[in-house]
Amino acid sequence: MNTKNKKLLNKNNPENTLVCVGFVNNFKEEFECVGVLIKEQKDSIRVGFSAKNDKLVDYVDIKRSDILNINILNSSSINKL
Amino acid sequence: MKTNEVYNIKYVDASYSYAKKIDKTELSLHEAYGYVNKSDNNIIITFIKKKLPKGQEESALGLVIPDTALLSYKDDNAKILADFKIGMSVAVTWRDIVIFESSNLRKDCSTMYTEGFLFKIEKDHIVLKNPETIRTYPTPIKNHPINKPSYCTIPVSFIISITIIK
């Protein structure tokens, strides 16, 4: 299912929405990232990677037009160290 | 560990303070998501990976943390502080967390050398007052951070060695 333009965040869900996003940069090089979907805007999304005392530290903003695919990850599939 | 599996890790980090006075101190809690690899006693967390030809991949953005930074790590390092007291002038060698990007890929942590006065000795961290820190690995040796802080908090689990400065 193509979810690149679909709204994925549910504000009523207290759990993080974990996503795996495939995308390209301006040179059409392909990348993949995993993290927490922080916000969705009309033209972009923000994926967070790390936090300090629950405050976002590292993240990436991805233009929707650069997104190749988005998959929502089941929290049960996340390993812990 | 498989590199395509996603991990959630919780860990601690060193920190600097520019406050004139500090009272209660504690280690901040960090959390990250990413693809994880282990290299010796380093844990590499890849946030973004670049897709290469023939199905190859490389890290484009991530962190390297000491394996001892994990909250799940059972710290047995506290005994190295047994002979140290508040106010002593000490030199601490410790491993620091690194953030890397594709232009500067890293597989191991930095090594830091800090001199300062022991301001606090807690179960899981020490605080040095008037610290002066240099990064001794990798070269070139650099002052760190650029602006001199008033205090440096170092997790006990990060400490490689600590000695008294005469």
Would you kindly provide a written description of the structure presented here, covering whatever features stand out?
The complex is a heterodimer of chains A (81) and B (166). Chain A is mostly beta strands. Chain A is 0% helix and 56% strand. Chain A has a single domain, classed as SH3 type barrels, CATH 2.30.30. A 5-stranded antiparallel sheet of chain A has the order 4-3-2-1-5, with no helix packed on it. The model of chain A has no long low-confidence stretch (mean pLDDT 89). Chain B has 166 residues and is mainly β. Chain B has one domain. In chain B, strands 2, 6, 8, 9, 10, 11 and 12 form a 7-stranded antiparallel sheet that branches. A 5-stranded antiparallel sheet of chain B has the order 1-3-4-5-7, with no helix packed on it. In chain B, a hairpin with a 2-residue loop joins strand 3 and strand 4. The radius of gyration of chain B is 17 Å and the shape is elongated. Chain B starts with 5 loop residues before the first strand and ends with a strand. Classes of the chains: A mainly beta (81), B mainly beta (166). The interface between A and B is medium-sized, with 26 and 29 residues.
* Helix fraction of chain B by DSSP (H/I, runs of at least 4): under 10%
Helix content of chain A: under 10%
What is the makeup of the main sheet of chain A?
5 strands, antiparallel
Note the gap between the termini of chain A: 31 Å
Q: How many E-type strands of chain B?
A: 12
Shape of chain A: globular
Number of helices of chain B: 0
Count of DSSP helices of chain A? Answer: 0
> Unreliable segments of chain B (pLDDT under 50, ≥5 consecutive)?
none
Unreliably modeled segments of chain A:
none
Q: How confident overall, as mean pLDDT of chain A? A: 89
